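Attaching the record inline, Q. Sequence:
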Amino acid sequence: MLIFNCTEAASNFFSRVSKGKKITPVEKPPSSVIENDEVVELVEQWLVHATTVQRKHVLFVIHVQTRYCMIFADAKKADVEGFVQRFSERWIDGLMRHAGQHDLLRWVDGESMMARFQESCREYIFYKRGHRGAQKHLNEISWIFEGCAAEWGTLPSDEFSAGRFDGNMNQTPRSSKGRKDYYYADEEMIVHWLRRYSDLDEPAVQAARERRMEVKREIWAFERQLAQEAQ
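Structure, as predicted:
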């Protein structure tokens, strides 16, 4: 199940008024603290925040566990089904692109992966509650996005452009309470995805993680070479 935890702004975004009555899909959560929810297998907890950039609605969504984020520009107010569809497609596309770029497709069975995903995430619910740690990262991402949009003079024109911004944010080193070292959200999410939706055992997951780092080092070395040749 997908759980979208909405800030006050996001709760208002997904709500509408009909005949003077507020209609909202956002429900009261079972607990005010996400970590206090009953542990249920295959639940994905996300935090959603809404803001306005260049007079258009923008949604910022971050995975509470891994801090993997996605940005949805020019979102349609109160269009819950449209948002969930757009969210699911971007999430899958972003992960498959990352897997392809980092030589991880050998660990991915696309058919079984999609079957597990659709079974696990076909249901969703919206709660009104926040998460201090995830919100801190969302605030930073929102600030960067607004700066980029001002520089571009426009919002991302399509899902591919928005996905590139997602990718840049997800490869930024992050820190969280309770974690000693910095980590990368894209790495944490691909590992999470392989465990949950590709049904890999831990040795296979670690092999995929190590291969990803090998490819990252190869990319960094190539970039350094290009920079030296350009001097």
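The first helix runs from residue 8 to 14. The two ends are 51 Å apart (CA to CA).

More tomorrow.
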